[in-house]
From TrEMBL:
Protein name per Swiss-Prot or TrEMBL: Zinc-binding dehydrogenase
InterPro entries associated with the record: ADH-like_C, ADH-like_N, ER, GroES-like_sf, NAD(P)-bd_dom_sf, Zn-ADH-like_protein
Organism the protein comes from: Caulobacter hibisci
Gene3D superfamilies: Medium-chain alcohol dehydrogenases, catalytic domain, NAD(P)-binding Rossmann-like Domain
Record-annotated Enoyl reductase (ER) domain positions: 15-331
Pfam families in the cross-refs: ADH_N, ADH_zinc_N
């Protein structure tokens, strides 16, 4: 019997390297309702991976051993009895936990969605692209002409958010770190860029955009969350799409007036975004992203650092978590 490789969580530990091992798994024929997909590329979610390794994700209960990874694209190699919606040779994407960091994924056909090709672009749009679209439209509920601030704007999620916001007719304030990333987000259409390495975000917003943010989409937390919430406009919406700053030390304990005092007199709101709880929005998001791409208003950018093979996932996670990447970090499987 042949085997394939996967990255499997074997124990809880502080880092993914300590917690997960590359293992060989026996292949099998797909059962009724299942398909077998040979994964070509996987997408990296480094912060999530590390938190899973630490058993620190409250909404995902894992018991080692369990396969890691979420996002992948590949080609259907075999279909089980009763499967009619997919055929051998179809390019498909999967965004379910446990299906990403492995060379082969044998799972129910409903786990997969058809994509144009098993390439990086399809991977990014089917996973991170959908997340960005849902965060922006379903949760942020941005309107054309509004001002939208985006943290980590040069990252996998952020660079799609910038383009989706511009395509929707919004003014975009992109927050990122360093001149290279600033130039990148400008090339995507950002109207203003705040380089947090050159100037505190709070200072820049208070000077140039006081109480002007109709929508803020934040994946960082900490001082950036505070700066966004301080500068919300009337009826402004702050979307919490992550808290990367709290990854190492746990939730920061802050002594400050309750957030209600910032929100009440502006009729503003803070909204949590968790893509896995918003699956009803995914089909419409996919369709709109495809239309934007066809119209030349959206491009999916992969980080240009090369990672290949399941064993390279460790390095890819470290690279993403270093804060140096631009675009989506991917691994060729």
């Amino acid at each position: 019997m042949s085997t394939y490789r996967a990255l499997e969580l074997r124990r809880f530990a502080r880092t993914l390297r300590e917690a997960a091992d590359v293992v060989d798994i026996d292949t099998r024929a797909p059962g009724p309702g299942e398909v077998a997909v040979r994964n070509a590329w996987c997408g990296i979610n480094g912060l999530f991976d590390v938190q899973i390794a630490r058993n620190a994700v409250s909404y995902v209960k894992v018991a080692p051993p369990v396969a890691m990874g979420v996002e992948a694209v590949g080609i259907v190699e075999a279909v089980g009895e009763g499967v009619t919606e997919l055929s051998v040779g179809d390019a498909v994407a999967s965004v379910r936990f446990g299906g990403g960091y492995r060379e082969m994924n044998i799972a129910p056909a409903s786990t997969f969605v058809k994509v144009p090709a098993a390439d990086q672009e399809s991977l990014i749009l089917a996973s991170t692209g959908v997340s960005a679209h849902v965060a922006f439209h379903a949760i942020g509920q941005a309107k054309p002409g509004e001002t939208v601030a985006i943290s980590a704007a040069a990252g996998g999620l952020g660079h799609i958010l910038v383009q989706v916001a511009k395509a929707h007719g919004c003014k975009v304030i992109a927050v990122c770190g360093g001149p290279k990333k600033a130039e990148f987000v400008k090339s995507l259409g950002a109207d203003a860029v705040i380089d947090y390495r050159a100037e505190p975000v709070a200072q820049a917003l208070a000077r140039d955009f006081p109480e002007a943010l109709d929508v803020g989409i934040d994946t960082v937390g900490g001082d950036i969350f505070d700066a966004f919430s301080d500068n919300l406009a009337r009826h402004g919406r702050l979307v919490v799409a992550g808290v990367a700053q709290d990854m190492d030390g746990g939730a920061e304990i802050v002594s400050a007036p309750r957030i209600a005092h910032k929100l009440y007199y502006k009729a503003a709101s803070i909204r949590g975004f968790m893509n896995g709880l918003l699956t009803e929005h995914w089909p419409a998001a996919r369709a709109d992203l495809a239309a934007l791409k066809a119209a030349g208003k959206l491009k999916a950018v992969a980080d240009d650092t090369t990672f290949e093979g399941v064993e390279a996932i460790y390095d890819a996670v470290d690279w993403l978590n270093s804060g140096k990447s631009m675009g989506k970090v991917t691994v060729k499987l």
